[in-house]
Amino acid sequence: MIETRAYARAGLLGNPSDGYFGKTISISVRNFGASITLYESPELQIEPQVQDTHIYKNIFHLRDTISTLGYHGGVPLVKASIKKFVEYCDKEGIKLSNKNFTVRYRTTIPRQVGLAGSSAIVVATLRALMQFYKVEIPQPMLPTLALKSEVEELGITAGLQDRVIQCYEGCVYMDFSRDLIEKQGYGYYEPLDPRMLPKLYIAYKTDLSKVSGKVLNTIRERWEQGDPHVVGTLQNIAGVAEQGCDVIKNQDFKRLGELINQNFDYRAQIMTITDRNQALIDTARACGASASFTGSGGSIIGIYRDEEMLNRLFIELKKQNARVIKPFIV
């Protein structure tokens, strides 16, 4: 019986420049995770979970389920991961033993609120397959393989950031410069000591769920068309992460809070922010905390000064139907 796990993640700085040859800093959030259970069996079987069912209470239940999870559950993610794993082994000349398995997934990661629930399932699946077939995939290449599982197989618009932090864990600075990606297939990944981080909070509300690929699609189109405003703003967002790497090392928390706010303010220049998402940001900042999206929207991250401020965040964000947590990073 093989059991593997991958944790939620929160983008701290640089979001969403990772899909555009930018730079980011992310943390793993061990409060939530996706797990894979895999064991040998006569036939290859993927066990569906509740979210994979096609049985609904009524048309409203169907509507709400699709709005939150999209048209697919986790099974397509597992299938795509298996396919890419096999293709990787074929390309590398790795011969896989002729044995089958049954695989099931579980996840506690709130779906579609910018905490990387989908990629966690993919990373955990790849880890299980590596153990089952005794295959070693170099750590820098594993996030790239995970990304291809979603982008090439399922048509999901995504970047490397989520997969890198879920493979490396902790806190990581990432440089996805075009030269690096095109030359070696992955970027420059520098782990940062999580003990250098200040007091962080995360707040999320599940009723803001959106499929992140859809949220980012218009930015992708404008970037590919060379829209100077979009291209320049994404470069500025990447610059925030680059500055943040040194700021974290110097433990300049005041400046780090400013960069977190700046990250969101840049993002708002090129993306439409819904009123309810903006309310999360405004409420947190009104409490004195910094605030930016952890991902595509639906959850925010920032720095709080002390327990008194954290309590204010709990109280005020609860009025927005948001849950506040302290991320467990290591």
From TrEMBL:
Residues 83-170 form the GHMP kinase N-terminal domain. It comes from Runella defluvii. This is Glucuronokinase. InterPro entries: GHMP_kinase_C_dom, GHMP_kinase_C_sf, GHMP_kinase_N_dom, Glucuronokinase-like, Ribosomal_Su5_D2-typ_SF. Keywords: ATP-binding, Kinase, Nucleotide-binding, Transferase. It comes from the Bacteria. Residues 248-309 form the GHMP kinase C-terminal domain. GO terms for molecular function: ATP binding; glucuronokinase activity. Gene3D superfamilies: 3.30.230.120. Its EC number is 2.7.1.43. Pfam families: GHMP_kinases_C, GHMP_kinases_N.
